[in-house]
């Protein structure tokens, strides 16, 4: 089965992509991700609930969740944030997505 989303991305399975506990933005060799550790079943090194990271060289990493993949920076990290505050995590992810879109920090 092949599913098409927004006329640009084709996925071969409904479960292909990052796990449901993550949001990912990728464009022009840049990547941003927000991970909610309270929803992820895979182990993490962060003791905070939310982990936001952005930088260059995004690629797929070996999946820790069956049927999905996780993003990984293969280049330098431009920024990261670990927090238990959801509003702070959302604001950081919005800034990270702006970096992915433009290549510049807001």
What attributes characterize this protein structure?
106 residues, alpha+beta, two-stranded antiparallel sheet, 1 helix, globular, disordered N terminus
List the helices and strands and how they pair.
Blueprint: E1 3-5, E2 9-11, E3 22-27, E4 30-36, E5 50-56, E6 58-61, E7 70-73, E8 77-83, H1 86-102
Antiparallel strand pairs: 1-2, 3-4, 4-5, 5-8, 6-7
What does this structure look like?
It is a single chain. The chain is of the alpha+beta class. The protein has one domain. The protein is 16% helix and 39% strand. The strands form 3 sheets. A 4-stranded antiparallel sheet has the order 3-4-5-8, covered by helices on one side. It has a two-stranded antiparallel ribbon with strand order 1-2. Strands 6-7 form a two-stranded antiparallel ribbon.
Give a short summary of the structure.
The protein is an alpha+beta fold and 106 residues long.
Multimerization status: single chain
First and last CA, distance? 40 Å
Strand order of the largest sheet: 3-4-5-8
How many structural domains can be distinguished in the coordinates? Answer: 1
Mean pLDDT reading: 76
Using the alpha-carbon principal axes, give the shape: globular
**Order of helical and strand elements:** EEEEEEEEH
Instruction: Please report the number of helical segments.
Output: 1
- Give the % helix: 10-25%
Largest sheet: 4 strands, antiparallel
Tell me the Rg in angstroms.
Answer: 14 Å
In terms of DSSP E residues, the strand content is: 35-45%
Structural class by helix and strand composition = alpha+beta
